[in-house]
């Protein structure tokens, strides 16, 4: 038998092994998320006992520790929802563009949402949470379309490298525009700059309830696009030959991803790199089938953002480091690694 035969046999065996482990990895991830969420309500600038955590979860706010835990509960819930949305939107964007570098932050979508919100605050005095969400989604949508159109110009269409460069250039330009809007307005610059860092410390049940319907719609659209993304991964021509309406499938999936990251940005500010790191980690664990990749990306995204929020509370006690800074410190080296290893190829 020729030497090349064993690798040909081993590859399907590896794929079968990944398929068998998919339910197990999802169960493990959910268990880890539960543990991280429980730690999030108990760990902070002031640690509390297990009894206080249980009492606060039961509704008691009589003691100081129990009141502290009660305040951390909406913060933890927001971190879980935001992390899940960002991880899921990153996986969908990578699938839609077939770009291993696709991420709401790298493609400038978060920055577009931020510019829209900041401009609305400065010009019309936008202050309602629902208004933030609608404006952020509009800004994210316009930016996503603009980056894709610019990245599609020229020979070869929307290649991963051209999309990444278009997103980086657009993000830099929009960041400058944000500064131009904020700097002359001393009355709003302090609060806006704090929001632009990205964090979940201001999470409340009121803000969560207002953003939840948008996240639910984005989640539904994204998960329903799993089979379409599997088809698109084969190439547009083959997907069309299999009966897939390529433009419709790509548009619905992209809108679901933009809806998720736009809504999250409105509540937390721009948080980067979660949508880049998480899908790559998920592919290593379960492969490229989006029917499993998307749910696991949501769970691992929630784990990553919640755990980095906890880390930000304890590394500089009694002060806190916003989660947007921690995710940047984690994600930037990973971004460099992906660029060097993938050579910016298509997925």
TrEMBL record:
Example of a GO MF term: transmembrane transporter activity
Membrane topology: Multi-pass membrane protein
Chief location of this protein within or outside the cell: membrane
Entry-linked SUPFAM superfamilies: ABC transporter involved in vitamin B12 uptake, BtuC
Protein's UniProt name: Iron ABC transporter permease
Source superkingdom: Bacteria
Keyword NAD among UniProt keywords: no
Pfam families listed in its UniProt record: FecCD
